[in-house]
Amino acid sequence: MTDVLTQPRPIRLKGRSFLALALTPELPVADWLVRLDDLAARSAGFFLRRPVVLDIDGLDIDRQELRELVEQLSSRNVRVMGIEGARTSQLGPDMPPAMTDGRPAADFEAPAESQKTQKETVDPVEAEAPAAPLQQPVTAAPSLIVSRTVRSGQSIFFPEGDVTIVGSVGSGAEVVAGGSIHVYGALRGRAMAGSTGNAEARIFCRKLEAELIAIDGFYKTAEDMEPELRGKAGQIWLEGETIKAAILG
């Protein structure tokens, strides 16, 4: 009789989906690294324990230059978990793996084939009559409500939609949303709205004391914000590539 205790157990593999920052370097790389250092200096711990994907699609660098870039980022404690947009010739066994199919926005579901061909099968007589407007079902946008204060060191990630914090966001805390962010208290940490490519997202808070705010990847640190906005109820939005802010009420 075979001893079941000695039989090898199968390895269990599970799928997981994680949120990572996508860094998009620009040429010259040395100047881009200076700007990256400036961001890290003005927002301490911004890259700490955060997975990063390096997006080099369209960046004209060779294999050695890419390796040096990854080493430069590693020396800054920026951990590159994968590289997107790289050619096979740019990668090697000592480099982070290639990544594909990154989706910055929600999936788009194409109409079913029967819907696509419906127009072709309509009776010609009926086609002469004006078509009645189609009633689209109303679906609520996904949202997350956090009924507590987000304390220092804590992170809230919700790429599917809006995030509402019924409380404050402490210094060193972070809120990342695919949609808008609403904070019914003081915003002292970092708030990043529109993280999945939504330039229409906004940030609202009762007391603006943020370390960093960002919408669709464009950011402002505390030093860049207008002094008259500090400590006031405010809203933040994006115009083109410029972060705008105004006092509420």
From TrEMBL:
Keywords: Cell cycle, Cell division, Plasmid, Septation. Transmembrane segments: none annotated. Residues 145-244 form the Septum formation inhibitor MinC C-terminal domain. Residues 87-122 are annotated as: Disordered. InterPro entries: CAP/MinC_C, MinC, MinC_C_sf, Septum_form_inhib_MinC_C. PANTHER family: SEPTUM SITE-DETERMINING PROTEIN MINC (PTHR34108). Interacts with MinD and FtsZ. Belongs to the MinC family. Cell division inhibitor that blocks the formation of polar Z ring septums. Rapidly oscillates between the poles of the cell to destabilize FtsZ filaments that have formed before they mature into polar Z rings. Prevents FtsZ polymerization. This is Probable septum site-determining protein MinC. It comes from Shinella sumterensis. The gene is minC.
